[in-house]
Q: What sequence folds into this?
């Protein structure tokens, strides 16, 4: 008996939905393993000798050989990869040569700072990016539209490192509107008790409003600098999507029925580009998590971006692999979340 | 738009709540990059951040006088006596000395401290293994004489004066055995715990370390060195020099370290700030890999290269104040350092030397780190060598990548820097003028330069007890290397730092470990 085709407009049967979910999960797993294999191979092609990095310049041949053996580098590459995967399955990411700590502990310590910075930046970028795109699409060709396009161009073309230094010079050194680099002023370092690892939340929980205000004073500038990049992307893509929709028949029909410009934009067009917006936001968020290295350097922000950069400079293979896996997982996960949200919000994708 | 402007203003208002906090009165706040730090155990830490801390956390039996570094002064030892065999020293320990834990100093602590360095066999251990010590025999060289005396012996042919130099190095810091062993795990002599804690008798002790974020030291009032004047030292990781400069300028830190020439220029004349350029035991040099190409093996090329290094142009014009011209392998300030600078930039003379040797169309690749100031110097050298008819192709890379290739002899020439490992002339002689052909990756080895005679002289200098004779030996070796070696040593670095002008008593010496916080007031 042939399976009946789903009727137009109705939801797909349960088995199809389950199959889709399983396929997605399998695809996630395969992508993760692929990512691991690729990074692992890349780290082995690096011209930097990790044994020399650990053993030091003055190590004897015997010490060098011992360190090489301890690292398992005297084994075939496939054996090394299998060993890495096996350890990973037990939640063991290895020991960082740089910090002498388990990589998982290092990531637990540094990732909250990056999440805090990236999330705040994303909120900033989403709020202002969407607002700017709506304003631009509301009156294309107007001054507002030109401003939106200029900001998009600025966000894309100005290096974030330079913008960060300029921001510090203006808002910290000249105007005194922002606090300096770091997450808190020195006087708070003695008293802040880390509970969640997120300084904003921990300072709020401390019950000391001054400390919380100080944390905000430190974070807002890197958030704006980092958020500008994501905001530029959101504004540009959302504006284009809104303008594209506005030339479609249903918009012309709504206009003919006498609907106002604002109503058409918000009630008719915006819901139809929501899927695009969600995807853009999710991908921007993943980029912010991974791409905040320069902002973290300028603002002395102790996040995973800087941790990974230091690991790369010193050929700390377990740390490089661990951080890559973490960021890669975030990418994959956020993609999946974006897909799911698009599926939920846009009936056309079901 | 009407709604956006008020939102932006509101955001600005929130930010305007920020007050510019001066540093706490009892705390010295320092901004520097601490990304190099991996462990504050003196048996392991060998980077700038860690060795700078050791002098303040630990004491050694003997240490350099901060005001006159070549003079060794008693510290945890009150006196010492060489043995009749010239292969031992007996130290009398300070009777009143205590560690920050309250435990008194004992001969056992000295034996434990030096022995664990050798047994752990980590990067800085080579400083002590030069004495002929290894993990199996070290215990036999360290003896408790009585409750107040300890005897240190060695098998290598080195003089007691040289051994004293080694015992003044950070790796020879005396660790509180009882505290370290109380935190021992898997026979690591407390190495894991000491990565972020301290067990010494220095003027400070570690209160908190978050690697690559912050190092907080607090006063050790019972230190034999006396209680420090400030209660806390806070070293915060600020990787970007421009950000360090801004922090200092705003008064949010008291000292900003390792600034660039640009930052110092911007800070000069600013109210409340003073700048200093402290000579460092760090040399910048070109070295040729003589095994890579017959031309690079030709001494005429080495000589011509000495006239193609634009010493003054780079030191004075390109990197103002960050370097001084220095051409010998012992940095200025070291015992026996020769400050002769016989070479100056002269492309015509270089051309004549190359022509006489029949070398035409000379070209080579210069590998160097992609970080400042290496790339700036390399590009300047590209220009200055071109005027002498030598084509230089600059090949930048990650420091670790360049270093790996140089150690594997996979390069033609490299621009590099060399810092002293300890405060004795042998540290650089054993690098530039020593190739024992046993796989030790000295600078001479990296140049594939075979020098049995100079290697013998290097060993002889460590065996010499008479300081004047030692100086003569090192000066003769420096003259030889200056005249005939595949190196062009051109510059000695200065550490550019800026301090708030209310700061008094801060002392920093030529070697990385010579950083003294205990007398600082503000």
A:
């Amino acid at each position: 008996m042939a399976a009946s085709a789903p009727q137009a407009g109705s939801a797909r049967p349960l088995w199809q939905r389950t199959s889709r979910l399983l396929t997605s999960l399998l695809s996630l797993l395969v992508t993760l393993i692929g990512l691991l294999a690729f990074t692992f191979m890349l780290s082995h092609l690096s011209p930097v000798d990790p044994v020399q990095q650990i053993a030091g310049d003055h190590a004897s041949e015997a010490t060098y050989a011992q360190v090489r053996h301890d690292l398992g580098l005297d084994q075939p590459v496939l054996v090394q990869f299998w060993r890495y995967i096996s350890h990973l399955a037990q939640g063991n990411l290895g020991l960082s040569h740089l910090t002498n700590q388990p990589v998982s502990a290092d990531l637990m310590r540094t990732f909250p700072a990056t999440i805090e910075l990236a999330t705040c930046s994303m909120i900033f970028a989403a709020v202002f990016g969407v607002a700017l795109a709506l304003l631009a699409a509301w009156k294309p060709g107007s001054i507002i539209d030109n401003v939106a396009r200029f900001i998009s161009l600025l966000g894309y073309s100005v290096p974030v490192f330079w913008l960060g230094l300029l921001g510090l010079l203006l808002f910290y050194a000249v105007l005194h509107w922002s606090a300096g680099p770091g997450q808190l002023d020195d006087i708070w370092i003695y008293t802040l008790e880390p509970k969640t690892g997120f300084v904003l939340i921990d300072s709020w929980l401390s019950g000391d409003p001054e400390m919380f205000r100080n944390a905000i004073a430190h974070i807002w500038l890197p958030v704006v600098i980092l958020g500008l990049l994501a905001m530029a992307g959101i504004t540009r893509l959302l504006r284009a999507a809104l303008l594209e929709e506005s030339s479609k028949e249903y918009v012309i029909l709504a206009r003919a029925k006498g609907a106002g410009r604002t109503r058409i934009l918000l009630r008719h067009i915006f819901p139809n580009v929501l899927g695009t917006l969600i995807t853009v936001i999710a991908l921007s968020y993943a980029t912010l998590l991974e791409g905040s290295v320069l902002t973290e350097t300028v603002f002395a922000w102790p996040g995973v971006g800087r941790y990974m950069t230091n690991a790369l400079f010193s050929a700390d293979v377990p740390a490089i692999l661990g951080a890559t896996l973490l960021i890669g997982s975030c990418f994959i996960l956020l993609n999946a979340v974006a897909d799911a949200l698009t599926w939920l919000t846009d009936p056309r994708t079901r | 738009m009407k709604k956006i402007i008020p939102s932006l203003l509101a955001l600005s208002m929130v930010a305007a709540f920020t007050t510019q906090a001066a540093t706490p009165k009892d705390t010295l706040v320092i901004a520097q990059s601490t990304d190099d730090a991996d462990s504050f155990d003196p048996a392991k830490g060998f980077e700038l951040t860690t060795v700078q801390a050791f002098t303040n956390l630990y004491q050694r039996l003997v240490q350099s006088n901060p005001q006159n570094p070549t003079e060794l002064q008693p510290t945890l030892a009150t006196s010492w006596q060489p043995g009749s065999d010239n292969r031992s020293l007996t130290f009398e320990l300070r009777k009143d000395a205590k560690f920050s834990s309250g435990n008194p100093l004992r001969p056992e602590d000295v034996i434990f401290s030096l022995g664990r360095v050798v047994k752990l066999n980590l990067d800085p251990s080579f400083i002590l293994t030069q004495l002929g010590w290894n993990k199996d025999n070290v215990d036999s060289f360290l003896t408790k004489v009585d409750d107040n005396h300890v005897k240190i012996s060695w098998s290598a042919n080195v003089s007691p004066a040289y051994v004293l130099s080694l015992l003044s190095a950070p790796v020879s810091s005396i660790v509180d055995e009882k505290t370290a062993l109380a935190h021992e795990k898997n026979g690591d002599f407390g190495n894991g715990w000491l990565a972020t804690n301290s067990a010494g008798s220095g003027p400070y002790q570690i209160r908190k370390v978050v690697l690559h974020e912050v190092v907080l030291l607090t006063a050790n009032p019972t230190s034999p060195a006396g209680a420090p004047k400030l209660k806390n030292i806070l070293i915060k990781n600020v990787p970007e020099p421009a950000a360090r400069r801004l922090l200092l300028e705003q008064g949010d830190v008291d000292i900003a370290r390792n600034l660039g020439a640009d930052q110092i220029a911007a800070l000069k004349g600013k109210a409340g700030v003073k700048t200093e350029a402290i000579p460092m035991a760090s040399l910048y040099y070109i070295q040729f890999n003589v095994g890579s190409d017959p031309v690079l093996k030709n001494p005429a090329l080495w000589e011509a290269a000495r006239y193609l290094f634009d010493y003054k142009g780079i030191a004075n014009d390109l990197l103002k104040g960050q370097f001084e011209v220095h051409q010998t392998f012992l940095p200025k300030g070291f015992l026996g350092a020769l400050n002769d600078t016989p070479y100056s930039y002269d492309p015509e003379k270089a051309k004549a030397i190359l022509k006489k040797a029949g070398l035409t169309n000379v070209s080579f690749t210069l590998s160097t780190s992609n970080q400042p100031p290496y790339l700036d110097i390399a590009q300047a050298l590209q220009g200055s060598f071109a005027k002498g008819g030598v084509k230089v192709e600059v090949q930048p890379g990650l420091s670790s990548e360049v270093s790996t290739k140089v150690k594997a002899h996979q390069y033609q020439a490299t621009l590099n820097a060399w810092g002293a490992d300890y405060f004795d002339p042998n540290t650089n002689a054993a690098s530039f003028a020593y190739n024992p052909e046993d796989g030790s990756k000295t600078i001479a080895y990296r140049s594939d330069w075979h020098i049995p005679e100079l290697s013998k002289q290097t060993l002889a200098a460590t065996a010499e007890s008479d300081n004047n004779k030692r100086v003569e030996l090192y000066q003769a070796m420096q003259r030889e290397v200056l005249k005939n070696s595949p190196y062009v040593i051109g510059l000695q670095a200065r550490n550019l730092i800026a301090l708030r002008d209310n700061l008094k008593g801060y002392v920093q010496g030529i070697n990385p470990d010579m950083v003294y916080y205990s007398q600082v007031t503000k």
In short: Chain B has 20 helices and 19 strands. The first strand of chain B starts at residue 27 and ends at 32.
